[in-house]
Write a structure and sequence with these properties.
Blueprint (H helix, E strand, L loop, with lengths): L1 H21 E4 L3 E7 L2 E6 L2 E4 L5 E7 L3 E11 L5 E12 L2 H6 L4 H18 L3 H6 L1 H16 L4 E12 L2 H43 L1 H17 L9 H24 L9 E3 L5 E3 L5
Antiparallel strand pairs: 1-4, 2-3, 2-5, 6-7, 7-8, 9-10
Helix pairs in contact: 3-5, 6-7
Length: about 290
Amino acid sequence: MKTLGVVVVVLVVLSLLVLAMAVRIVKQYENGVLFRLGRVIGERQPGLRLIIPLIDVLHRISLRIVTMPIQSQGIITRDNVSVDVSAVAYFKVVDAVKSVVAIENVYSAIDQIAQTTLRKVVGQHTLDETLSETDKINLDIRGILDVTTIEWGVQVTVVELKDIQLPDSMKRAMARQAEAEREKRAKIIAAEGESLAAAALGDASDTMMAHPLALQLRNLQTLVELGVDKNTTVVFPAPLMSAIGDVGSFFARETTAATALTPPAASQPGSVPIANGSPEVVRTSN
C-alpha cells in the first residue's frame, strides 16, 4: 500500500510538472511563435496556450513600439564641418515570425544600422542644411531604415534628430555672422529712414519756396523751441537775418501802397498807414 501511495504521489507531481510545462500565457501586447521540433508551426494569439513539453518551444514577441536612442555620432558634413549628432528611433515588430527567423537579435541590428544610416545621411548635407532641414533628414533616415528592417519584420515609425553639437569655433563664427546680419539690417533700415526723411524735406522745401514766409515762421518756431531750455545763447540762422530785411521791405511796400491810396486830407499827424488803408494812431512821448 505504501508503494502504491508513493507511485500515485509521483504520478500526480509529474502530471503537475507536465501541465506546468505545457501551459503558456501570451499577453495582450505579444504574439507567440511556435516551434515544433525546430520547425515553425505558426503564430499564437494572446491568451492561454498549450504546447507539447520537450517538443514545442514558444517564443513570445512584443508588438509594442520600442524607443531606441541612437548614440552621438561624430560626422563630417559635406562642407567639411565636424559635428556630433544624436537621434532617437521608434520601431515596432509587425511580423513576429520574421523577427525571430530572419535575424538573431533585431534590437542590436536596428541600433547598428541606425547609427551607420545617421552618419551616411547627415554626411551628405551641409551644416546649414543639417540645422534647417531636419525634417527632410529625418524622413531620409527613416526611408533607408524601412527598406532594410521590413525584411526583419520590423517597421520604423519615427526617426528624430535629438541633438547637434557644434565646435566652439563654429559657434563663435555663427554668432559673428548673426551679428553682422543684424548690423546690415539696422543700416538698411536707417538708410530707408534717411531716404524717406529726405523726400519729406524735399516736399517741405518746395512748399517753403512757394510760400517764403513759411520759412521765417519755421525759424521763429525753432527759436521758441530753443528758448524752452532757458538757454543763454540764441543762435540766429543766416536766413533769419535776411528775413528781417524782407519783412521790413514788405511793410515798406505795403505802407507806400496804402499812402498812395489814401487821400492827403485823411491823414493825421502822428498816424501811420497800414496795409488795409486805415490809419493807426501811434502815440509818442516827448
